[in-house]
Write a structure and sequence with these properties.
The complex is a heterodimer of chains A (420) and B (472). The longest helix of chain A has 16 residues. Chain A has ten helices and 16 strands. Chain A has 420 residues and is α/β, with parallel strands linked by helices. Chain B is α/β, with parallel strands linked by helices and 472 residues long. Chain B has a domain of 307 residues: TIM Barrel, CATH 3.20.20. Helix content of chain B is 23%, strand content 21%. In chain B, strands 5, 6, 7, 8, 9, 19, 20 and 21 form an eight-stranded mixed beta sheet that branches. A six-stranded mixed beta sheet of chain B has the order 12-14-15-16-17-18, sandwiched between helices. Chain B starts with a strand and ends in a 23-residue tail after the last strand. Classes of the chains: A alpha/beta (420), B alpha/beta (472). At the A-B interface, helix 7 and helix 10 of A face helix 1, helix 6 and helix 8 of B.
Chain lengths: 420, 472
């Protein structure tokens, strides 16, 4: 885990409040740790951390007391693999920084350098209970004479949605399968060919080809070498069962720590995924054959994977960041189609934190840990519930966002009959 | 029931002989009027005759704003016969135990591209945008619909019993829509909603100007967009005038009036100005919607609904006063500049205006499977904003209001005696993420039964490694 910038700048206009103490009383606390779910429990937050969880916790002098009335408290939720703070508005190149289009393979491309923690999109996610997310680059095909990306989209990092630019952990994102064949000369077979060449350049620097025949720059060899050495997880975006098996075989041979994202047909190879201890980050709503790689897509993907012992986390099919609040709905749909409720919440909290190596900072409610948690009006996986309070690192977050400002400006006009 | 109207087409036949010396100048005689069918691709859908069904003891949201607890719904001869308490079942009725279940009208999506942008989304299936000209009022979406789209099945499982299939939004005027019943069929005619009027898809804003402007073609700007629509309406007015003149002359005994050359584009536009075709306009920004409303008055037509309408909440009262529905998402925003001001409360705020008509739409093969959950989200954020929204009211966003905007509220959209028996039985409060459909009736015929799922409905899914609802 690296802390690229531990400045903790509260840059947002609508940002953190104070570092006071809080006592949340009488909550149903889904700790997502070994302590399980605790009914009628209190949570004491001091100095940004969870100081106590249990019944009958006493409020220290000056602590703000919040009566939860038995409502659920969960860890702050994951926002998925996303362009959060990298794409203020879609279709506008001047505010879209997620895709490198230099035409050559650049694993040294680190998209987090473009992250804007003050983006209005961050605030919209935060008021919805999303407290951490995985910033993700994307690869796009070239158009006409314009170069595009390659099968290695680049590096991303976990961030918190508290308005700070701090990054946690690293991951390298790769695109495989039919959707990515346009990034690899038109065939998915070449995806492995090119990746093998890149690995050879890293592993056998003495036998390097002439410059014009290499796929990596010196910085690229260094970056890929760090990931091969364990600096972060390789995330392979791939849907078709046969492609997933090829990725598993490659990772086993190269002894890589990997995760599958997408994984529309992952359930068809759930045994192999479980044996290889490879987690899957899925869009639980993907049930149509949007491509031929996803002919086996089903709403039971999460349930079948979980039953086979595969760890499941959630993301949206689209990395577009504006609707990351929808992620908890997808977990709820997975539960409606057979996934145990606890596994649904785990896929939004503990499991993604584990996959990305940040489980000591995100994803659980435990004594001594940073207090990232959400008090809900009802079942956190249901669309009829909303956050009542959101804490990040023990700070009560504002319930305002650009969207609430717009809402309140026009709500009165509609009530007065003057919205015209 | 093709109503044959006289008119329109002429291939002028020259009579006389140019070689005849000293003859008068050749006289043109016009051909006999060519009959034109007003319904050339008619619906062939006829619901099967089935035994009556009595759903007993359910929580019923009627779609008329009412909630009836422990109530019954009786379906006879493909129609709703009665809704109320302690109804008598005919002797041959199938009885469905509704206790603990909820019953609603079938859900209706006013904005779908199923069939025209089907799954799989390969090039060979991409039939939703005739993006070769900014005005393609001559195209009809039904001629692109692929009835084997597996998305029809998943939408049905989500409780969708009818939907409007629209052309895409690349064009200022994209073409005719078609309203379908969500029933399995090899042909689209076998899905076509009997008696539903046609719609016309129009589009504001970024899409037309991006698609054509990026190639330095007209339109490149929003002012270009509006000039583009107006030129079309002017032509349509002239077309109507010429047709009316022709009919007037025929009626006055003129043996040989000059017919008006038939034009598919102008047929559709004239249909709008005559009030026979309903306008569904893709439009995000409040100011652009206001422009379109003024334009509709300039040319004397009515906009049935603005679709997407991310800023509809800014002009809720203006929309309501003009009897225009807003068809919206529960929370999508920011995917382009014109949607940057979208808010989750949009639906609730359009609804809150006096006379407001809010519709939850999908524009998505995923969203159409969960319109009920989208409504659940909209209801929840609306309540948090301080508005009173009951389930019996919110269900109208998915049933009666879309039916109204499509001109089919007299046929479906509510559970009222005499209407088509398009009915959904839910296992749970339908606004919850956990709600699943137990039974989906279209015209009283069970088209989905969760207890007894059938083999894949789409031919495309047959023989594939797996499909929705297929066990591993």
């Amino acid at each position: 885990m690296r802390q690229l910038l531990s400045l903790l700048l509260a840059v947002g206009v609508i940002g953190s409040a104070s570092a006071d103490s809080f006592l949340i009383k009488n909550a149903t606390v889904h700790t997502m740790s070994a302590a399980g779910t605790q009914e009628g429990a209190d949570i004491l937050i001091t100095d940004g951390r969870i100081a106590a969880i249990g019944r009958g916790v006493q409020a220290p002098a000056g602590a703000q007391v919040i009566d939860a009335n038995g409502h659920p408290v969960t860890p702050g939720l994951f926002g998925g693999l996303t362009h959060l703070g990298l794409e203020e508005i879609g279709l506008e190149p001047s505010v879209d920084d997620y895709a490198l289009k230099l035409g050559n393979m650049r694993p040294e491309f680190d998209v987090t350098l473009a992250f804007d923690p003050a983006s209005a999109v961050v605030g919209v996610g935060r008021v919805a209970g999303v407290t951490f997310a995985m910033l993700t680059p994307s690869a796009e095909e070239g158009r006409g004479n314009q170069p595009g990306g390659t099968i290695i989209a680049g590096q991303g990092s976990v961030v918190a949605l508290d308005g700070a630019p701090t990054t946690y952990s690293r991951a390298l994102f790769l695109d495989f399968g039919g959707d990515a064949s346009g990034l690899a000369g038109g065939t998915r077979a070449a995806e492995f060919m090119l990746l093998k060449q890149a690995f050879t350049e890293v592993r056998s620097p003495k036998s390097l080809l002439p410059d014009d025949q290499r796929v990596l720059t010196p910085a690229g060899r260094q970056a890929l070498g760090e990931f091969i050495g364990g600096a972060g997880v390789f995330v392979f975006n791939v849907d078709r069962a046969s492609d997933i098996l090829q990725v598993l075989a490659f990772a086993q041979k190269e002894k890589l720590r990997i995760a599958i994202s997408g994984g529309a047909e992952a359930w068809r190879v759930s045994g192999q995924l479980a044996a290889a201890k490879v987690p899957v980050i899925i869009d639980a709503l993907a049930d149509l054959p949007g491509t031929f790689d996803a002919v086996g897509a089903t709403l039971e993907n999460a349930a079948r994977l979980s039953k086979a012992g595969v760890r499941v986390a959630f993301t949206l099919d689209s990395t577009e960041p504006h609707n990351i609040r929808k992620l908890r709905q997808t977990a709820g749909v997975a539960v409606a189609h057979g996934l145990p409720w606890d596994a649904g919440l785990a896929g939004l909290t503990r499991v993604p934190a584990e996959i990305f190596g940040v489980a000591d900072r995100f994803g659980t409610i435990e004594r001594g840990r940073a207090a990232d948690l959400v008090l809900w009006s009802g079942d956190p996986l249901d669309v009829t519930s909303l956050p009542d309070r959101v804490f990040i690192a023990g700070k009560l977050q504002s319930d305002r966002s650009r969207q609430t400002e717009l809402r309140d400006r026009y709500l009165e006009r509609v009530r007065n009959g003057t919205a015209r | 029931m093709a109503r044959v109207i006289l008119a329109l087409l002429s291939a002028a036949i020259v009579t006389g002989c140019a070689s005849t010396p000293a003859a008068k100048p050749a006289e043109k005689a016009h051909a006999a009027p060519i009959p034109v069918s007003s319904n050339p691709y008619p619906s062939t859908y006829r619901p099967r005759k089935v035994a009556p069904t009595l759903i007993r003891g359910a929580t019923v949201l009627t779609g008329t704003g009412e909630r009836l607890d422990d109530a019954d719904v009786l379906i006879v001869d493909n129609r709703i016969q009665a809704v109320g308490r302690a109804l008598q079942a005919p002797a041959d009725a199938q009885v469905v135990d509704g206790h603990g279940r909820w019953v609603t009208p079938g859900l209706i999506d006013v904005h779908s591209h199923l069939g025209v942008y089907p799954s799989p989304g390969v090039r060979g299936n991409s039939d939703g945008n005739e993006a070769s000209n900014p005005v393609t009022a001559n195209v009809w979406a039904e001629h692109s619909v692929w009835p084997q789209d597996p998305g029809f099945t998943t939408a049905r499982i989500g409780g969708i019993t009818a939907m409007q299939i629209l052309p895409g939004s690349a064009n200022l005027i994209g073409g005719r829509s078609v309203v379908l019943k969500n029933v399995p069929s090899v042909t689209y005619q076998g899905m076509k909603f009997p008696g539903a009027p046609y719609g016309l898809k129009m589009a504001c804003g970024e899409n037309p100007k991006r698609v054509y402007g990026s190639e330095k073609k007209f339109p490149e700007t929003r002012m270009g967009n509006v000039a583009g629509y107006r030129a079309q309406w002017i032509e349509a007015q002239e077309y109507i005038r010429d047709q009316d003149e022709y009919q007037r002359k025929l009626a006055a005994g003129d043996k040989d009036p000059k017919p008006v050359k038939r034009d598919l584009r102008l047929d559709t536009l004239a249909g709008v100005l005559r009030g026979e075709i309903l306008v569904h306009q893709h439009c995000y920004r409040a100011d652009e919607m206001a422009t379109i409303i003024d334009m509709s008055k300039e040319f004397n037509y009515h906009v049935s609904a603005f679709h997407h309408a991310s800023e509809a909440y800014k002009i809720s009262n203006l929309l309501a006063e003009n009897h225009i529905c807003g068809a919206m998402w529960a929370d999508w925003w920011g995917f382009k500049m014109e949607s940057y001001d979208g808010i989750p409360e949009n639906i609730a705020l359009v609804d809150a205006a006096s006379g407001g008509c809010a519709i939850v739409h999908s524009d998505s093969e995923e969203g159409i499977q969960r319109l009920n959950q989208e409504a659940g989200k909209a209801m929840t954020v609306g309540r948090r904003a301080g508005l009173t929204i009951t389930p019996e009211h919110a269900i109208t966003w998915l049933t009666a209001n879309p039916a109204k905007s499509l001109g089919i509220l007299d046929k479906t959209g509510t559970l009222e005696a005499g209407k088509m028996a398009d009915v959904v039985v839910w296992n749970h409060d339908p606004f919850s993420v956990y709600a699943l459909t137990d039974l989906v009736f279209v015209d009283g015929v069970v088209q989905y039964d969760r207890e007894h799922p059938t083999a894949p409905v789409s031919d495309f899914m047959l023989g594939q490694p797996s499909g929705p609802g297929v066990a591993p």
